[in-house]
Design brief:
CATH topology: Cytochrome p450
CATH architecture: Orthogonal Bundle
Helix content: 40-55%
Family: Belongs to the cytochrome P450 family.
Mean pLDDT: 75
Number of helices: 12
Strand order of the largest sheet: 1-11-8
Distance between the termini: 10 Å
Keywords: Heme, Iron, Metal-binding, Monooxygenase, Oxidoreductase
Number of domains: 1
CATH superfamily: Cytochrome P450
Number of strands: 11
Order of helices and strands: HEHHHHHHHHEEEEHHEEHEEEE
Pfam family, one: p450
GO molecular function: heme binding; iron ion binding; monooxygenase activity; oxidoreductase activity, acting on paired donors, with incorporation or reduction of molecular oxygen
Binding site for heme: 228
């Protein structure tokens, strides 16, 4: 984050930064502290390769896969300027877009981060205590998930559901995660961005860490045994990045815009607007927690 601040102009001026490029850099720097670079790049290459293959019929995929550049790229080569990023980058970008839009909601999130980090430690407990930020992240993911469909699986043997429906062997199944998240029978005022929604809901015992938990109304991380094993790492990475931005910067959309840019839907995948810039300005009262 300190290196990214060098791109911001001094004198209290606003600096426009490409949101996608910034999100990728921040996520990669965070992942590089835990994983060697070639493994950190592997997921991006894999997602890009999979997405590219979707436009081709099944019978041609083995041939096309061998010809695609992403299929021949070595792990260490990376893909800094090609394809879309992984779910962590997409989610971080969605939160940033909503943060630039939701000016009145940033104050409570920043005050929470200051209160939690007064000890000066970025610990697991500190991140777990950022409950309002956790709620805002979940609300962001509810309205802008990385994919409309999740829980992708292939039935290995016939399965009979409780209502008598039989899933035959070889069937491909998915869950409509986005539709569940905006279902008015499940969520009150589903089209409304309500940052504290889950913060208020989580006061119910057993719902303290909703963003990284699976639930029948929240399937973006999967469900039951088919649940994302990296959800805790992603949760921590996003919280550290967003909290750092809130502590050190003001942010807004250029030209006085207040609405986040529309995303592109490619099949079931949601891709943030790749051309969007977000303006940053260093705070005069910036709080620095390393």
């Amino acid at each position: 984050m300190a290196q990214q601040r060098q791109h911001c102009s001094g004198g209290g001026a606003w600096t426009s930064i490409g949101a996608v490029a910034l999100a990728r850099r921040l996520v990669r720097r965070g992942a590089a502290a835990q994983f060697i670079p070639e493994l950190a790049d592997f997921s991006e290459n894999g997602f890009g390769h999979s997405l590219a293959l979707r436009v081709f019929p099944d019978w041609s995929k083995p041939v096309v896969a061998a010809l695609l550049p992403t299929g021949r790229r070595h792990l260490m080569d990376g893909a800094a300027n090609e394809g879309d990023d992984d779910a962590t980058t997409v989610q971080r970008l969605m939160v940033t877009y909503l943060g630039a839009r939701a000016r009145g909601r940033r104050g409570p999130l920043r005050q929470e981060a200051i209160r939690v980090l007064r000890s000066g430690a970025w610990s697991r407990q500190a991140l777990a205590d950022m409950k309002k930020l956790d709620s805002f992240m979940r609300e962001s993911q509810r309205l802008n998930p990385p994919t409309h469909l999740t829980f992708n699986a292939i039935v290995q043997e016939p399965v009979t559901l409780q209502d008598g429906v039989v899933l035959p062997e070889g069937a491909h199944i998915q869950m409509a995660a986005y539709s569940l998240g905006v279902d008015p029978e499940r969520v009150q005022d589903p089209e409304l961005l309500d940052g504290p929604r889950q913060y208020n809901n989580r006061k119910t015992p057993g719902q303290e860490n909703w963003h990284r938990k699976w639930h029948c109304n929240h399937l973006n991380f999967g469900h039951s045994r088919i649940v994302c094993p990296g959800r805790f790492f992603a949760d921590h990475a996003i919280k550290m990045i967003i909290a750092n931005v809130l502590l050190r910067c003001h942010l807004r959309f250029p030209g006085g815009k207040t609405e986040r840019p529309a995303s592109l839907n490619l099949y079931d995948v949601v891709i943030p607007n790749l051309n969007t810039c977000v303006e940053f300005k260093l705070r005069t009262d910036a709080s620095d927690y390393n």
